[in-house]
């Protein structure tokens, strides 16, 4: 992991934007900037301060030992909280003579207010300062995402054997989670979606007590996590033989998925990936049933930059990792979504999701 390179990229951006000091407290950005494994979890009380001369990571006693050993030989100093993390950061800023400070736009309002009162200098917000670099993955990051995608593929193989009428969505979701964890996933990046029959019409359905019945389409949207990095995939299967209407929806979504994927290469505007995939559905009279953007970046967060949607303004960068996931949602009937995870490379892309995409009738 090129932690020194990440810090240098941040410092360059800070110089360009006239930011002398930044406090980063978002979990994924902390992980990214420090490169610390097995230190930063969702519950951490931690933050880091970066100036042109200083890189200091602050946390409390619970995380201090792990942070000290993770920091060994690297550029990070560790500050252990005595009273309050942000009071100590502001005291250090005061000692450094800093007159202005940047915070991430994602900090909670209470923290913003507290730091503003403690610091007494100018406080400004920065948007996507670290997230912008995070789009372009290093090889070691791609390897972790690929390992997570492979776990999800293996879990899908198992689910094709496991799913049968009579099980509930919640039971299938539990088996999915259990299988991924058994194959080495460090927890879940998000709760798996198992949406059967009419529940499939809701893109973010929560698995519930509904029992699988013959004739159901089931949307399975799930991912694993390895070394902090997420994967994300969706497959839709049919319980029993698909009806003509189910097959028509499925074929349209698959064609949209393939058409969108064909646009994924470095330099391509994200909006074009969405448009080309969406056009396939529009041509088949299904455009109004596709109610979300076609994809998103994946990394330390399950949803990160870039966004691939009708209003995207970014272009795909080499070594970005993104999803392509068109779907159609028919209220009261069913949903179909097919989502692949790919890495932008070599003038095109490489698939990290390798599960079959022809309609599986269980
Ligand atoms: Zn997904
Ligand atoms: Zn997704």
Concise account of the structure shown:
The protein has 362 residues and is α+β, with helices and mostly antiparallel strands. 36% of the residues lie in helices and 22% in strands.
What does this structure look like?
The protein is α+β, with helices and mostly antiparallel strands and 362 residues long. It folds into two domains: 3-134, 3-Layer(aba) Sandwich (Creatine Amidinohydrolase, Chain A, domain 1); 139-361, Creatinase/methionine aminopeptidase superfamily (Creatine Amidinohydrolase, Alpha-Beta Complex). Helix content is 36%, strand content 22%. The chain has a six-stranded mixed beta sheet with strand order 4-3-2-1-5-6, sandwiched between helices. Helix 7 crosses helix 8 (169-182) and helix 9 (244-262) packs antiparallel against helix 10 (270-283). The longest helix has 24 residues, at 139-162. The model has no long low-confidence stretch (mean pLDDT 96). Bound molecules: zinc ion (ZN) (2 copies). One zinc ion binds at residues 232, 296, 323, 325, 339. One zinc ion binds next to loops.
Which superfamily, in CATH terms, is the homologous superfamily of the largest domain?
A: Creatinase/methionine aminopeptidase superfamily
Largest sheet: 6 strands, mixed
On the 0 to 100 scale, the average pLDDT is 96
How would you sum up the global shape? elongated
Order of helices and strands: HEHEEHEHEHEHHHEEEEEHHEEEEEEE
- What CATH architecture of the largest domain do you see? Alpha-Beta Complex
How many strands appear in the DSSP assignment?
Answer: 18
Amount of helix: 25-40%
| Number of DSSP helical runs | 10
């Amino acid at each position: 992991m090129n932690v020194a390179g990440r810090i240098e990229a941040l410092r360059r951006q800070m110089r360009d934007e006239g930011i002398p000091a930044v406090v980063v407290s978002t979990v994924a950005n902390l992980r990214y900037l420090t490169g610390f494994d097995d230190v930063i979890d969702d519950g951490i009380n931690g933050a880091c301060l970066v100036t042109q001369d200083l890189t200091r990571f602050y946390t409390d006693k619970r995380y201090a030992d792990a942070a000290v050993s993770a920091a060994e030989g690297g550029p990070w100093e560790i500050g252990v909280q005595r009273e309050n993390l942000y009071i100590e950061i502001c005291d250090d800023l005061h000692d450094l003579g800093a007159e202005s400070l940047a915070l991430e736009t994602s900090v909670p309002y209470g923290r913003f207010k507290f730091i503003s009162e403690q610091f007494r200098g100018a406080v400004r917000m920065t948007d996507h300062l670290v997230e912008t670099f995070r789009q372009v993955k290093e090889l070691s990051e791609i390897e972790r995402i690929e390992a997570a995608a492979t776990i999800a593929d293996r879990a899908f193989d198992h689910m094709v054997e496991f799913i049968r009428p009579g099980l509930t969505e919640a039971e299938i979701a539990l088996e999915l989670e259990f299988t991924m964890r058994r194959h080495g996933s460090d927890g879940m990046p998000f709760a798996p979606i198992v949406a059967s029959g009419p529940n499939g019409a809701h893109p973010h359905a929560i698995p519930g007590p509904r029992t699988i019945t013959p004739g159901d389409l089931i949307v399975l949207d799930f991912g694993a996590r390895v070394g902090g990095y997420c994967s994300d995939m969706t497959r839709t299967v049919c319980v029993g033989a698909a009806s003509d209407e189910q097959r028509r929806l499925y074929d349209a979504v698959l064609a949209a998925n393939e058409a969108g994927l064909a646009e994924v290469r470095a330099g391509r505007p994200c909006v074009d990936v969405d448009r080309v995939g969406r056009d396939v559905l529009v041509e088949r009279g299904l455009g109004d049933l596709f109610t979300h953007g076609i994809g998103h970046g994946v990394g330390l967060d399950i949803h990160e930059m870039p966004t691939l949607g009708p209003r995207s303004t970014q272009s795909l960068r080499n070594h970005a990792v993104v999803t392509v996931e068109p779907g159609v949602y028919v209220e009261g009937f069913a949903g179909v979504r097919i989502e692949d995870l790919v890495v932008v490379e070599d003038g095109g892309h490489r698939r990290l999701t390798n599960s079959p995409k022809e309609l599986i009738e269980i």
